[in-house]
User: Fold this.
Amino acid sequence: MKLVDNKATLTFSNGSPSVDLPVYAGNIGPDVIDIRKLYAQTGMFTYDPGFLSTASCQSAITYIDGDKGELLYRGYPIEQLATHCDYLDVCYLLLKGELPDETQRTDFHKLVTNHTMVNEQMQFFLRGFRRDAHPMAVLTGLVGGLSAFYHDSTDINNPQHREISAIRLIAKMPTLVAMAYKYGVGQPYMYPRNELSYAGNFLRMMFGVPCEDYKVNPVLERALDRIFILHADHEQNASTSTVRLCGSSGTNPFAAIAAGVACLWGPAHGGANEACLNMLEDIQRNGGVAKVGEFMEKVKDKNSGVKLMGFGHRVYKNYDPRAKLMQETCNEVLEELGLGNDPLFKLAKELEKIALEDDYFVQRKLYPNVDFYSGIVQRAIGIPVNLFTGIFALARTVGWIAQLNEMISDPEYKIGRPRQLFTGSVRRDVPAAARK
Ligand code: CMC
Assistant:
């Protein structure tokens, strides 16, 4: 970051001396006011719950321009990456900063492929869960559990440990997600097949059975790969910030990523794709397209507590570029599977049309986000609704790792420790009646 020839001056109406604060510029995006010395200089904290105006770190990985609807990974537009690269290329890019050349590509694919199996003992760990456990509960446990299986890569301050844990996590996530699914449906686990692509291997581990050959459908393979690319990173969102905060204590990389999985589960974040599909199915059950108007009235009524899931974003206030790409993929998959007349897709289109024209949504700049379409694609592929967020976690793992590594390598890195505005009781004595 560069110090700019501009400083911010904070003045107080009570006559306290004013304070000059340095301003830094990044390469694009808003400048930041450096308030690190504010407390020492004024005895005051800043107050920004929800981080509406706070940059929590400097980062060179992902850039979002919410007004333009632009998403860049290491400078490359998401549209170009989703069209010309595969997910493992994008993983390499996010981790290393550059796209791989041919040799680097081959080596990286080979390296990830060599780590796709999980310790056989993980199966017994999985067996402790109820069969009807939510896959995100299972995944939170399994990912955290990796730290108990791979003792040789748990030192977050050791670059080699970080490197090997990164590869292990990227390679093993599809295996773990598929195992969580197979366990739930009571089918045998499918071991990974290393001659298949990352997405193809995942499809086989999900939908293959040992008694039959499984042929990967290239359209579905490409669709899944695109889902992975679109979800790979998204700068300092809730789960990424969770991973950074968790990792800032020096905990091991598997534990930090498990914290990200737990955060992602929430319906305001990664859980939105599951919540969106449940919402569509709910409307469908209660009258379908004919009832869309009634449903939208509820969404607009603040007292109803109903939200249009898959709409709105903290940063994108124009459109979510991932949603556009996902919509394309959605059309391809539905056509390939002969589901062009899928009533849920028609319903989604109707909801989108109304929302895009309705004043409530227009004024608040609420547009479809990636989850609006990704649920429909995943459902068409055969992925059960409660596994959608698990797929998101699989794809986001590389982003979490890249951000974690960036933080640890930053010379300004410190344990994350926010402060507070205390509104509880001031000091008081335990009353005599309560004393023993
Ligand atoms: N349906 C109805 N109203 C909405 C919605 C929605 N989906 N999203 C925001 N609003 C309203 C909100 O009630 C508020 O209205 P008012 O100004 O009258 O009080 C206004 O729009 C601004 O919303 P906000 O809650 O202040 O916005 P935020 O930046 O805090 O929240 C959000 C962003 C994503 C949590 C929210 O839009 C939401 O809950 N959307 C539905 C869940 C969803 O699809 N989440 C996935 C996000 S994309 C995937 C990811 O990155 O994880």
